[in-house]
Specification:
about 475 residues, 3 domains, Spore Coat Polysaccharide Biosynthesis Protein SpsA, Chain A, alpha/beta, about 25% helix, 11 helices, single chain, Jelly Rolls, six-stranded antiparallel β-sheet, globular
């Protein structure tokens, strides 16, 4: 089989803020199962006989988190294409297609967003297996449409026509894309019986997709071809040429190809699909108590019904309300009704205009070596809790505007400070003067935890002058 899962992991998940943020988005969270959304996407097609190793497309800033989540589920060598900037799905799929045809000109892509839920994976895999020979033989683009259960106004629809041919009675010619309808239009589409929800999941022959892209969106084709042909490889990471790629317009695959091509086909599937596109959508898919409440974390309730209450750290008490969404993270409290949860995007837009940190990252910031959390900050000091994973190390670096004091609270640190190298054990500390080259490593088998006290005039992350980096990060990269 020449079928390769192509997993798009560039979404921001804005409507699930404050849990989902641009530097730790929805697909990297475990929302419904013990797996993250990304990991669940990989797992659901893993048992299809003969399917190839997944190829991922993600943003540069998410590269290590995506790679680490793949390693956690046993995919140590899966390739990851790093988009220099988000350009929507048509360019992202083009980068994948150019990569795959170098391996095999007859490759077929199974394109899947990384942040969707599918409860009936068996039915989905059967649909994939059924569609593969059609795509390979006829070079059509199959989109998997979701059989609608209600007149949903939050999804786009696809109308379909007669079957593809007598051998494929369950795969239909695509007739029309319909933007998200109003309630009356959605009811009409449901009653017509020839429309499905647009899932954004596609199966495409790579060469055919690129040929049609060249014809229908030549600017995207040219930019992605140049970006891919001049890409740099860095271990498992593939870095397309930035200058070339940003010339591609930001257009979805629907607009660029699927709405124009005569090769589009639809396979209706009923597989328990949801895009978990809002807090209300997550409430609908979550396990609930006898009163319809979805509760996560230390939550205490009294006379509460049909609500979603999520707490990351503190106790949350809710009394005498119905149909609410309450989300408490370490730095943000969100309260809304379920019916208004889709308006969160406008709130995030306001915060983005203010350049507020909560749009971009949590108080716990993930790095390839572990994580850190700012715990206190004053005019000339800042404290952090730092966790370094076993066997990992920070870059060899210096700071121009601050000194640091490290107090080890768990594990053993191997510290480089100037010309000296020393082991620092639990309940011991070390001082790093301003301007001195230093490095922190964890040589042990348990996580290294320490409290860092910074003193000085400036504490920005851009006050890091790297001399050497284990992860290949350049100056200014996280």
């Amino acid at each position: 089989m020449k079928l390769i899962p192509v997993i798009l992991s560039g979404g921001l998940g804005t409507r699930l803020w404050p849990l989902s943020r641009s530097l730790y988005p929805k697909q990297l969270h475990a929302l419904v199962t013990d797996d993250t959304m990304l990991q669940a996407t990989v797992h659901r097609v893993a048992d299809i006989e003969g399917i190839g190793a997944p190829l991922l497309v993600a943003g540069e800033e998410l590269r290590f988190m995506v790679a680490n989540q793949m390693v956690e589920i046993g995919y140590n060598d899966s390739r990851i294409i790093l988009e220099p900037e988000g350009r929507n799905t048509a360019p992202a799929i083009a980068l994948a297609a150019f990569t795959l045809i170098r391996d095999d000109p007859d490759s077929v892509m199974l394109v899947m967003p990384s942040d969707h839920l599918i409860r009936d994976c068996g039915t989905f895999c059967e649909a994939v297996s059924r569609s593969y020979p059609v795509v390979l033989d006829k070079h059509v683009h199959v989109t998997f449409g979701i059989t609608p259960q209600k007149p949903e106004t939050g999804y786009g629809y696809i109308r379909y026509d007669k079957p593809l041919d007598e051998n494929y009675q369950d795969i239909y010619r695509l007739k029309q894309f319909v933007e998200k309808p109003d309630e009356d239009s959605a009811q009409t589409l449901l009653e017509a019986g020839d429309a499905v929800w647009n899932s954004g999941i596609f199966m495409m022959h790579c060469q055919t997709y690129l040929e049609e892209l060249e014809q229908m969106a030549p600017d995207i084709y040219a930019a992605c071809r140049e970006a891919s042909n001049t890409a740099q490889s860095d271990g498992r990471f593939i870095r397309p040429n930035r200058e070339a790629f940003i010339q591609a317009p930001a257009i979805s695959v629907d607009y660029a190809v699927m709405e124009k091509t005569s090769r589009a086909a639809v396979m209706p599937v009923q597989m328990g699909w949801s895009d978990i596109g809002s807090w209300d959508g997550l409430w609908q898919e979550s396990a609930k108590d006898d009163h319809g409440n979805s509760l996560t974390g230390h939550v205490v309730i009294e006379d509460v019904h049909d609500s979603l209450i999520h707490s990351d750290n503190q106790t949350v008490a809710v009394v005498g309300v119905d149909d609410l969404v309450v989300v408490s993270t370490r730095d943000v409290l969100l309260v809304t009704t379920r019916s208004h949860a889709h308006h969160i995007r406008s709130v995030v837009g306001q915060l983005k205009q203010q350049n507020h940190h909560s749009v971009y990252h949590h108080t716990i910031v993930h790095r390839p070596w572990g994580s850190y959390q700012t715990t206190d900050k004053g005019e000339r000091f800042q404290t952090k809790r730092i966790i370094v994973s076993p066997g990992e190390k920070l870059s060899l670096q210096k700071h121009l505007h601050r000194s640091e004091h490290w107090i080890i609270v768990q594990g053993t640190a191997l510290v480089t400070c100037g010309d000296e190298e020393m082991l620092v054990h639990e309940n011991e500390s070390v001082y790093i003067p301003k301007g001195v080259v230093h490095r922190l490593e964890n040589p042990g088998k348990i996580p290294l935890q320490l409290i860092e006290v910074q003193s000085g005039a400036y504490f920005g992350e851009d006050d890091i002058v790297r001399q050497e980096d284990f992860y290949g990060r350049a100056q200014g990269q996280n």
